Amino acid sequence: MTPIRAKTMGAPLTRLDGPAKVTGTAPYAFEHQVQRPTYAHPIQATVARGRVREMDTAAAEKLDGVVAVLTVFDAPELSDTSDGELSILQDDRVHFRGQLIGAVIAESLEIARHAAGLVRVDYAEEPHDAELRADHPRLYAPETMLEDKPTDTEEGDVDAALATAAVTVDQTYTTPLEHNNPMEPHASIAIWDETAGTPQVTLYDSTQGVHVVRKTLAPIFGLEPDQLRVIAPHVGGGFGAKGAPHAHNVLVLLAAQRSGGRPVELALTRQQMFALVGYRTSTIQRVRLAADPSGTLTALSHEVIEQTSAVKEFAEQTAVASRMMYATPNRRTTHRLAPLDVPVPFWMRAPGLCPGMFATEVALDELAGACGVDPLELRVRNEPRTDPETGNPWSGRRLIDCLRTGAERFGWADRDPLPRNRIDGRWLLGTGVAAATYPASANPGNAARIAYRPDHRYTVQIGAADIGTGTWTALTQIAADALDRDTDAIDLQIGDTDLPVATVAGGSSGLSSWGTAIVAAARAFRDRHGENPSPGAEVTVEAPENKDADRFAIHSFGAQFAEVAVDRDTGEIRVPRMLGVFSIGRAVNARTLRSQLIGGMTMGLSMALHEESVRDPRFGHIVTQDLATYHISTHADVHDIDATWLEETDEHANPMGARGAGEIGIVGAAAAIANAVHHATGVRVRDLPITGDKLLD
After folding, report:
1. What integer is the mean pLDDT of 438-452?
2. What phi, psi does 303 have (nearest 5°)?
């Protein structure tokens, strides 16, 4: 691909949407001004499986200010009920605890919440299964994994290599349920207008993709796409959970049909989010490695057990990185799912690769110890020349450069190879390393519109989303470079289905997908209208296909380093230093890029030491369903954390030469910390999160 010129690309431009956000004038989903709004509060099932026999709504309906009550017995019918997660209130079945079974619409949020508590529900309860086990009797292999990846792969003779190897590792690693907890809860405002005879529906939503919401929800309600407008100019985080509509979106639209034409506002509580908007599945991962005495891999086996929901399948591709990360002649990866009576899992930052790389990178650390090889050097020795999965050449694999650069900056050469050999008072000190990778993808079907205005500025339109990552700023920089203008000549418009189609902000593909469309539109505009266009000049262009995507393996890579201090008496763990060095192609905005990488690393620290959603299998619900009991990293946990990247341009990725960086920061971070904890204490923890009790013998 022909790269665009560097005028503002890479510059640390401050966020263009910053003033609006810090002054409170940037409207989030629940803050859009509408006339005579009503408010909805969900009614959720309090059993994990069974049937709703009766819903007594009399007390709620008598309450002053209640507009309507929705139940499974009288809700409007949906046109398409094929999606098990989204086809709510269409029958009396309960598939998991917390499932939506109704809602109260009222004049105020407080009245709606109070009235919802007055609805009495009688259930015919049935036995349920809400516990993931390695020996679960209903484990099965799904047809495909997330991103259409094959479920199992096999190369060579893994069993024979394991049986004859000089050195082997055979361990099981587990990661817990984790829940996305963006600052802005999932929220929507729905307006169902039938005054013209044909429904015209507007949905203000907190989403990572307005066009994805419209494409999914319109057929469920029997609407043509142009009958549903979705608006989301500002989104307060998502981490994947807002990458597609969930049941609450359907609920607010059902409520809007019953509200007499008035807008309905719905904002989920923090507690409700733990049952309704997805989560990262727990995993049980058996990793087996075989190597010669030098640490060169002769076999790798990565077998994953995880959960899905009985009501709708979600298959996370946890072992996919093991298919391409290191060279070995014998390789096996498998995935098995347990269908449980629980909510549907969904995307959470770096799905699959984040939990999967925890297991393999800790296993590699164990292999390095068994071989007496430095953990960093072990990774270098197993570097593949081409992509082991496809055989394609790399578009730019610089993992060794990341490892070497990070080692020099981190002071890795001074590391004592023996565990539990550095002590500072009551603190045991240790350092660890892990590698990271994430595919660099761009979704097809994006388009952009550019128009020249009488005030000599350019309007650039695309239905993209800014979930707090800096899209407003980065796309403006891309447009300015492609048009050969300053950024203050660009008026970017995003977050609306009235704008040209754009794919979701997910899979670290947003900037690549949208930026490619904008560059294509800018080039078409300049070809058609020249360097001095007339006011009113306009083009709309769809992004071209990247022909290099099938000829090259396009991935980002990184090296994560961590230092830990462990209290020898209590097991308290502190992380004084973290460093990440990444190969992510060209930086579009150095300031927002660093923010993304550090944010991912901090989330990896949180994964390593804190995050765990605890489900009580007796009742099927998450008991840690708030930020008081679901712990995440805070300022006190983050000390000296730094991220940097190699100077490069990936000409095969897209015309910007950039690869996605939203997710690679979390990959490998937990493994680096776990490896550092072992180096400090001599205790190997294979089950996240790493808490003090797991270190006390």
Report:
1. 96
2. -115, 125
